[in-house]
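User: what does the whole thing look like in 3D?
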Amino acid sequence: MPVYSEKVMEHFMNPRNVGEIENPDGVGEVGNPVCGDMMTFYIKVKDNRLEDVKFKTFGCGAAIAVSSMVSEMAKGKTLDEAMKITPRAVADELKGLPKQKFHCSNLGAQALNKAIKDYLDKKKGGGKK
Amino acid sequence: MRKVYLDNAATTPLLPEVREAMLPFLGEDFGNPSCLHSWGDVAREAMEDARNQVAQLIAADAEEIIFTASGTESNNFAVKGLALAQQNKGKHVVVSAIEHFSVLHSAKTLEKWGFELSLIPVDKYGMVSPDDVRKNLRKDTVLVSIMHANGEVGTIEPIKEIAKIAKEKGVVFHTDAVAVAGTAPVDVKELGIDALSLAGNQFYGPKGVGALWVRKGVRIIPFLDGGVQEGGRRAGTENVPAIVGLGKAAELAKANMASRTEHLTRLRNRLLTELPSKIKHVVVTGHPQDRLPGHASFCVEFIEGEAMLMLLNSQGVAVTSGSACTSRALKASHVLIAMGLSHALAQGSLLFSFGLDNTSQDIDYVLEVLAPVVDRLRQMSPLYAKFTKTSKGG
Ligand code: FES
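Assistant: Here's the predicted 3D structure for the full assembly of 523 residues, as structure tokens:
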């Protein structure tokens, strides 16, 4: 098993923002092509900011810590800012990830992005928002 | 915090008696067994005693035992050495799809060297069918290697029947008995086999030592070229302390086999029945009865093994998993996939392997801490959410 940083362990043991949002403004679900795991992000948007972010993750310790970290980093940010959260930034914020776990941080950033795109698409499509 | 070690399939601890037996050879009795003076004599005698002890464990002759540095080395040695020794006769080898990588990758190496390889599938219990082996034997088959038991799912293979089929066709038969030797009774004559691998750290001996048994009269190409140690079949100054430890561990295993087996079987049967009844959506992997004593393996649905391992570890419980995320290569266990499990289910793999020190209270504790761990991860799992929604809806 890889050795994780204290920060990873802390987020893994006490993940923030676990769960689903009822009537979310956007949902992003991604599967991990490397190991077959899965991450879903739910967002609530207000005045172009991420008012709430929640996630569900089926995956390893790193994947859970990454989801938690991403949700924390994204919350309160404008959509533009949140779209710019890179896998690298997530890994850095977690004080590093083992090399073979880097793909788990891709997953987190991707899922969030997808949720935001989902929101933007809905908006463009003239949805209820 | 309570500490519960349930990863004896990875390695058993060293028994105090074994350590005691080894100590002189890490101190004053440091001689090289090849030397013809008194230091050499002491080392050589101790090593030959160990050879006898190991031979007795599997009902073999001492001169048929070759000491190696691990079960992995024994398997490499056997698969490559036995095949190469017969390449004039033919270049086809047969192994099962669930072999340990030391057998599987050795067979793949043979393929690169111009051999042909047949992989025998397994059923949903991880069992090899002797008939499948028979169907895959050809005129040019020179080696069949099927493991005695699988260390990941515990299933014990029908080695005796397979060996009989190989013998009828005049094909050499090797078995990787690393998970079995020292844990359950093994009698090489009774089994009718030609070669067998074992490893010290599977039965309370030291790490870094194993043995390969090759029946007298069966040819094998030396694994390491050099001096004439081990009858010229495995050169290099022997690891005397470890070999002495292996011998002592073998002696103790043989003497206490019945009581050990009974103890381990009782513990694993309890976990095999109680865990799936206490936690929903858990499947037992491997054969329900024909399995190693002390070995209980499961797949927990909707969650991933590494996360379970880490949470269990935080409660003092040491186990292992065959999930893709726990493997360096990020691939699901080839054993579980060969048994027909889906990749998602294989992600939830969990293996408990009991040892002599474990008690029934350990199982109480594991059951107590595992349920909330599983629950917590399921609450986080999108797969579980989907499952509960559809099962409510339908
Ligand atoms: S989710 Fe599989 S390795 Fe991280």
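In plain terms: Chain B has a mean pLDDT of 96. The radius of gyration of chain B is 22 Å.
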